[in-house]
Amino acid sequence: MPEVTTAKVQKGDYFVDYEDKLFEDVQAEPGEKALVTFHTVAFEGSIGLVNMLQAKRLLRKGFETTILLYGPGVTLGVQRGFPTIGDEAFPGHQNYENQLKAFMDEGGKVYACRFALQALYGHGEPALVDGIQPISPLDVLDIQLIARRDNAYVVSTWTM
User: Fold this and answer.
1) Is the pTM of this model over 0.85?
2) What whole-number distance in Å separates Cα of residue 46 and Cα of residue 83?
3) Angle 47-60/95-105 helices, nearest 10 degrees?
4) Chain segment 120-153, per-residue pLDDT in tens
5) Rounded-to-integer distance, Cα 147 and Cα 160, Å
């Protein structure tokens, strides 16, 4: 039987060289834009949270950054809590709301499709996190076409 001789990992140990950055730290040129679209369900995987962090990073790099929540992505933008709205039922329960609020506090814009909000997920506009702008389902395509026209950098959880 093989014998394990490596020391047990301890809190504070390093597994990787996190300071070694290979590529230049790209910053936005004046007027550059970014659009991050979400067509993913809250709490069904990591992509929602990861792309919110990417949106914040783009914003901090100087890109005029917008988030679009459509289809199941609107579930990222509704207020939640248990036993009451705003309560954190488990650690991380309010991650989406907290990330969206921080993004908007730093100057980012967030839009949510009204059709998905009501017709697909049974929420009204009052359920949205404060600061999220509801939009017509017809605007879901147009905001993406505007981003294309403006040569914006686009991060998408769904390709149209």
Assistant:
1) yes
2) 24
3) 10
4) 999 999 999 999 999 999 999 999 999 999 999 9
5) 13
CA separation, residue 111 to residues 29, 124, 135 (Å)? 24, 14, 6
Count CA atoms closer than 13 A to 144's CA, side-chain side. Answer: 18
DSSP H helices, 24-131, are 47-60, 95-105, 114-115
φ, ψ (nearest 5 deg) of residue 101: -60, -45
127 SS3 class: helix
For the record, the structure tokens of 44 come out as: 């069904």
Helix locations, the chain, DSSP H: 47-60, 95-105, 114-115, 137-149
- Going from the C-alpha of 97 to that of each of 14, 62, 65, 100, 128, the distances in angstroms are 31, 22, 17, 5, 9
Cα–Cα distance between 8 and 3 in angstroms, integer? 13
Amino acid at 157: T
